[in-house]
Amino acid sequence: CARAGKWRGTLQGDLPELPEPPAASGPAQLTLTGRYHGSTTAGQWLDRIVARGLGTRSRVELTLTEEGVSVVRPGAQDFFIPAGSLRGARLDKGIAGKVLAEGGLLIVTWQLGDRQIDSGFRSDRAAEHAAWVEALAATTPDAPDDVQHTEHNQEGAR
C-alpha cells in the first residue's frame, strides 16, 4: 500500500545520499542489462529499502570497473557502489518480496553509511550471474566464503 511505503521511507530518512559515479572510470570488466528488483537490509529479504529511490523497480544497466559498480536505471535514480563498499555477491531466489527460480537473482551486498544493503538484479541472460558473483568476490577479498543465504517462502512475495 502507498501509505506503508511512505511510512517506510520516513523511517529510512537517515540513509545517506547514494554515491555518484566517478567523473572518469576505467574500462568495463563486466556489463549486464536486465532488471533491478529492489534493495533490502542485508540478510533480511523482506525488509525493503525505499529511501533514496532504492525501492523503485526498473530496467538496469550494470557496469563493473575497478572503481566499483555503476547502476544506471532509466526512469529511476542511478547510483554507484564504490569498490571499497562492496561486501560480496551471491545467487539467490528472492528479494524485497520478489521470488524467482533458485539462483534467478544476482544479489550484491554493499555498505552505505552504517548499513549493509542487499540489492537484487536479474540479467536478461541469467547465465551471466555466475561471472558477476566470481568477479565481485575477487574485489571483496575479506568477504566470507559462506555468504549467508536467506530462507524464502511465498508469503510477502509479489
Tell me the total number of β-strands.
Answer: 10
Tally of separate helices = 2
> How far is the first residue's CA from the last residue's CA?
13 Å
Shape: globular
Outline the biggest β-sheet.
8 strands, antiparallel
Provide the structure class.
mainly beta
CATH architecture: Roll
Could you please say which CATH topology applies here?
Answer: PH-domain like
Radius of gyration: 15 Å
Which assembly state applies to the chains in this document? single chain
By CATH, the superfamily comes out as Pleckstrin-homology domain (PH domain)/Phosphotyrosine-binding domain (PTB)
Helix content: 10-25%
Spans where pLDDT lies below 50 across 5 or more residues: 2-10, 143-158
Mean pLDDT, as a whole number? 84
- Beta-strand content: 35-45%
CATH top-level class: Mainly Beta
**Helices and strands, in N-to-C order?**
HEEEEEEEEEEH
Quickly count the domains: 1
